Input
Amino acid sequence: MTRPSTSHRLLIALLGAALLQCDRGRTDVDAPGLAGSLDAAELERQKAAADEADPPEEHNLSELHFGVTALQTETEFDALVDEGLRTSPRYRPPAPDPLEPPVWNSHDGIVASSALMKSVAAGLDYGIDDSVTPCVEPRVAITCCTYKLKTSDASSTTTSYYRPSELFDTGNILLTYAAVMDFAAQVRARIPLFLPFTSKDAKLAHGWMYNGDEQKAHGSIDYVPANPPSGADPSFKVRASADGVVVAKYWDVWHGNVLILEHAGPSGLTYRTLYFHLRDGATHDFNLAKMTDATKGNAEFRYRTWVNNQDSVDAKLWGTDQQKIPVDLDDTVRAGQFIAWSGNTGPGGASAAIDDQGTMTSSTGNNHLHYMLAVKSASLTGDEWVFVDPYGVYGQASTGCYDLLKTTRFDRLIAPYFPTFHGVPLAVVNGYLGYYAHMGLQLATLSVHTRDGKVLASGSFQGGFDPTWAVFNYATPAEFDSFFAEAHGAGMRPYELGVTLDSQGHRRFSAIYRPRADGDGYDTFMQLSNDGWGSEWQSKVVSSHMGLHDFFGYHEGGNDLQAALFVNTGSDFYYHRHTSSQDMVNLVNGDADDGYLPVSFNVAELANGNVYFNVITAKTGDARMVRWGMSPAEYQSWSNYFWANGFRLRKVQGYANSSRYAAIWSK
Output
């Protein structure tokens, strides 16, 4: 398959192109390789020291941001991989959102409290788009109470946090519900927001509505320990959902220890995440709990009675004095940073596990994190915020709607995966391609690979590219051909190529597309035989002076095949083909010394073993490192190291049944 014809490209000045193809026998060992523009041995030493000082467990590229489950088992993971992977998705991001923040408060008046709505009856016609059938009808417009929370530790002033029905109360149940639905439809993540824990530590217990009572408003999310050891302290580490600043930290008479973080978005748009019932040292928490006003309500009475009945501080219920909140007011935090321990503090935290006689009914209490997300638009006056469901469900968790690949009425604000990810089910990646696109990030690289027949993906969303892009992945040759023609007609060309063999051993094609520049000629081939490759090399490089931009070798149906992208690059390049990992290390390092750096790297699993392909061009002032033969854990560790040192991921490939990774990082 060849697209487009030579009539679609313009010739440019002669390139200084050289071909170096070296076959030195078969190798069955995929020896790790590290090469590039830095001294490899020194880089290894630096990275080992960094791992020892700051273990790379906090930013797991492959962590999936699920709600109800964290996919603890292979069976759960495989079930998700199978779900929804039926067609080859094509994706072209919508036009970028305007820079101005949405007017989230488009209705006059702020209502401090509302007794208007006791429930929203299902089945009424609210003018909802019937083309979207969510797995549960949302309950956005709920009643309850206005939250008055301290503005800071030392301040006696409070900040108001509203439920949607309070903020948009029109005095008419149907009009109010329509206004709230319109509000919820405007809310989306403009910055990545992550789970406030690592997926192995906790799971979701209650969503926007309490489980078991779909009319009982919760308006927040509860997380509980995922697999607490029997009889041991169940507390889990709470982490910041995004980069931000601590705007409040104090003890609350209902919520116990409270942390509130503020996160800056584009054009003045801001978010707040609120974390309740935390621990801040056992003695500190126990003494403050003794001061609970037991006359305020039944929950407060049960809580105060329980506290007074304790002869000593039980670590399973209160933690230790060392379990202090490690951040303070006005501190800057990063996404994923450890900020607290989950706990039982405050009547709202522990009283659900205390009976009317003040006896704790569980050996570990009601240890959980009560988590809320609030938005504020520039159109709001004063310091008022409104709570939103970070999953876009506005329903019960028990429906399963909080899991990935479920249809919800509104956008999910919690990231489904990290911007740079690996080993994530392709169905999940494709289901949320728009998540990062709405933030102005583009898909910079994508590898579709398999593990025991399951289709996975690895890649990276990044800024700094042309905002117009498209992707068509895991496509049959006929599907790929059709989309290729469509993309070319829209003024785009492939930027990166990939080939995957499905469970029947049939080829599937993937490509990321970027806009063509003036005079940007190209030729793309996805299934060249060895003879065809030699012929096209002669035609494109030797005769037409084109450059090799990307390359992917693979084996299908007993034949070694190649995918290749030739472009009018305007710069010279070298192309290496080796069966020896060490030979490739030596070549890449030697090229770096001569001022040439890798732009494309591929480990081709061919009939006689792995073959390493590398395309390099003249150095453009940046540094690049290429690494292959990495296990998933090694890839994770190297990625953390390169991020910390200012590199970005340029290209990634998963291979060897997804047990190995190759990647290029640039700076």
User: Anything to note?
Assistant: The first strand starts at residue 2 and ends at 3. Confidence is low (pLDDT under 50) at residues 1-29, 56-60, 65-72, 106-128.
